[in-house]
Design goal:
147 residues; mainly alpha; 7 helices; 0% strand; extended
C-alpha cells in the first residue's frame, strides 16, 4: 500500500486515540502544585531549623534536587510523570530528572563514556542557553544603567 507522507499523517491522526485534555491539565496542575507545596514545606522546615530565608530557600532547592534524583533512581519519578504529565516538569525537579535519567539509561556503557558523558545530553543545552541568556541579560542591564 503506497501512501504519501500527507496521507500517512492523516491516517495516523485518524487512528490515534484522542487525548483527554481537561483531565491531563487538571492532573498537571495538581501534581505540579503538590511539588511546589512540598518545596514550600521543605523551605519552611529549613527555616524552622534555624536557617535564614535565603539559606532556607537554597537548602530547599538542594533538597528538591536530591529527592527528585532519588525518586528517578528508584523509578518513582517516572511513575509520577505518567500520572501527572507536565506537572512533573516543575523546573528544579524536572531538571534533576532530566540529568539523572540519561545517566541511569547509559550506566551499562561505563562510568565515563556512559553515565558521565550522557548525563548532560538533555540538560546540557539548558545549561548553555541559560548561561548565555543570563550573560546577555546582564549586559543589557549594564548598558541600560550606563545610559
Amino acid at each position: 500500500m503506497e501512501m504519501t507522507p500527507k496521507e500517512y499523517q492523516e491516517y495516523v491522526k485518524e487512528k490515534s486515540p484522542k487525548s483527554p485534555l481537561g483531565k491531563n491539565m487538571a492532573l498537571a496542575f495538581v501534581i505540579g502544585g503538590a511539588i511546589c507545596v512540598l518545596g514550600q514545606l521543605i523551605q519552611t522546615g529549613w527555616g524552622a531549623a534555624g536557617l535564614g530565608q535565603e539559606d532556607a530557600g537554597t537548602a530547599a532547592s538542594c533538597s528538591l534536587v536530591f529527592l527528585s534524583a532519588l525518586a528517578t533512581g528508584l523509578n518513582g519519578y517516572n511513575k509520577l510523570a505518567r500520572f501527572g504529565g507536565a506537572g512533573t516538569l516543575v523546573p528544579i525537579t524536572g531538571f534533576a530528572n532530566a540529568v539523572v535519567s540519561p545517566a541511569i539509561d547509559f550506566r551499562s556503557e561505563g562510568f565515563v563514556t556512559g553515565m558521565a558523558a550522557k548525563m548532560f545530553v538533555i540538560a546540557g543545552p539548558v545549561i548553555v542557553f541559560g548561561t548565555l541568556t543570563s550573560v546577555v541579560y546582564g549586559v543589557i542591564l549594564m548598558l541600560l544603567r550606563l545610559v
